[in-house]
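seq:
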Amino acid sequence: MGSPRRILGTLGLLSCLALSAHAPAAQAVEPVGPRELPRVPFTQRYQAVQHGGLVRASNSGISCRKEESPQAEPCAEVKRGAAGVNSDFEMFYSEVDKDPDTYNSTRAELKVPQGAKVSYARLYWGGNLRVGEQKPPQDNGRVLVAEPGGAYKAVLADTVIGHRTDAGSDAYQASADVTPLVRKGGAGLWTVAQLNIAMGHSDVGAWGGWTLVVAYEHPREPLRRISLWDGFEGLVAGGGEAAGETVEIAGLDAPAGAAGRAGVVAYDGDRGTLGDSLTVTADSGRRISLSDAENPFNDVMNSTITEFGRPSFVRQPEHVNNLGYDADVFDIGPALSGGARSLSFTFTGESQGQFLGVLFVQTDARR
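struct:
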């Protein structure tokens, strides 16, 4: 995300209500895809208390190809983790499948434990449609997905698509329930192709990626409460109280000393552009800033795909700086030291703003 920048509205998160928008078979009407809304609030998508947990696979779909700004670090160094923003580069699609019929494709490992049963799986994808080219929004609701060792299958969005345009960007997020597909495909390298994102160079920059979030049951794992929320809206540029929003997850009943983790998917957060933060507050009043070795407290959405500050699964390609795509998992154990019935997550935006898409939380539950 580069300057000049637009000022985005306050955070709302996409309320993904399951829609079936196909006309009855008796009517001679073409099927209508999911409707789009520019702003819909965060809504809980899935919740369960079960022996098991949450895992995810994720990757960005685009990266730098050539420096366009004199102050930009070399593209190769940025891919390895140097600070850099997508607006300083010509951005080009990542392609790993060698299929002439796809123009972008990336892979990531899904680490479902052996012996686990998938209880729910949802795929999220999104990005910017307007950079050096303008991609058609009518393609937002479709991607190609291949399970480990399998062939591509079309996946269609089954819910409201968040889609917001302004003077600089044309950003969206879509999602679909892929539980049957993941139950069949299981653990291993998943491939997602044909993300509807634009390449090229502009003052705003190109970004986009995908994340597959999976809830599973396993009789040998602790009893946990798992919760998945999704959304799509912008954090206002500049941070501060007016720029933030709080999402409360209630009914946890986590015991004192419980373990927990929280995952976030965000778009257009820049590595080295400061001001964005994420805090979590337990009902006891204990408040902590979520950060780790790769995600500083004042640059928490910085184009990384990590778990507790480290890579946790194989990706192809495996860039450190994903130039506008974040899918990070943080340790929230310190907030649970005294137990918690609820947790409040508060997001604030970096100096140039960003978009948020997904929040998923796992905590130990009382036996």
